Amino acid sequence: MNLDAIPKLKHTNSNNFFLLAGPCAIEGEDMALRIAEKVVTITNRLEIPYIFKGSFRKANRSRIDSFTGIGDEKALKILQKVSETFDIPTVTDIHESNDAAMAAEYVDVLQIPAFLVRQTDLVVAAAKTGKVVNLKKGQFMSPESMQHAVKKVTDSGNNQVCITERGTMYGYQDMLVDFRGIPTMQEYAPVVLDVTHSLQQPNQTIGVTGGRPDMISTIARAGIATGADGLFIETHFDPANAKSDGANMLDLSHLEKLLTNLTAIRKTIITL
């Protein structure tokens, strides 16, 4: 994957990690713009290449009454407005083959959810849009097996692909990050560490996913020290009242300190 090929991506020559960050789901225009503005300010100061993240629809829900979105076109237009307002690229996840062409009209990066990364038709549809494809490693897959998902993208004529590590199932209700997987998967494509989803505690009996946001800094620092090319962080100014994944999101007020520390670690690593 060539970062310079991503439209509007800044600071690509800074030798820093790149960042995909934003709310789990697009809840409305004001919240999306508010989060984007804060993250843009921080990443510009630290010279971090930044891609705004927001799901236009949430399809993988624990219960039928869980929040799924505000409407596809409405949410996608908000993502487009974020991009135009702050001159930054955006990423969203897709769940069905028909989503690929639709979402590609509005965003710069298409993300394949972890549970769906083996769905060949979906991966190929994303690849054929010509957009960057971010493949989330399945919670049930080995790092080595992700080479086949990458090959589906490249065999479709698209070399703009990266892999995101988001933890592996550890029992029924917890995730585990095996940092050995980062250099392994870097043999196939650049690797992003999804810090917040790696700290999910899924399958809770109440039907709402739990999390360990207190461990975000620990996992993020370990990822940068291990040499991850990028980080994925879901963040919100009011996680307790977020409509999706609030239990494992980073409070937006803590983001600047975290990214400042991570940038310092990155500088130390690349000078060794």
Automatic annotation (TrEMBL):
InterPro entries attached to this UniProt entry: Aldolase_TIM, DAHP1/KDSA, KDO8P_synthase
Enzyme category, top tier: transferase
Biological process according to GO: lipopolysaccharide biosynthetic process
Pathway: Bacterial outer membrane biogenesis; lipopolysaccharide biosynthesis; Carbohydrate biosynthesis; 3-deoxy-D-manno-octulosonate biosynthesis; 3-deoxy-D-manno-octulosonate from D-ribulose 5-phosphate: step 2/3
Domain DAHP synthetase I/KDSA: 13-263
EC number(s) recorded for this UniProt protein: 2.5.1.55
One CC-aspect GO term: cytoplasm
Main location: cytoplasm
Keyword terms: Cytoplasm, Transferase
Record field: catalytic activity: D-arabinose 5-phosphate + phosphoenolpyruvate + H2O = 3-deoxy-alpha-D-manno-2-octulosonate-8-phosphate + phosphate
GO molecular function: 3-deoxy-8-phosphooctulonate synthase activity
SUPFAM superfamilies per UniProt: Aldolase (SSF51569)
Pfam families reported for this sequence: DAHP_synth_1
Subcellular location: Cytoplasm
Family listed: Belongs to the KdsA family.
Name by which UniProt lists this protein: 3-deoxy-8-phosphooctulonate synthase
Highest classification ranks of the organism: Bacteria, Pseudomonadati, Bacteroidota, Flavobacteriia, Flavobacteriales
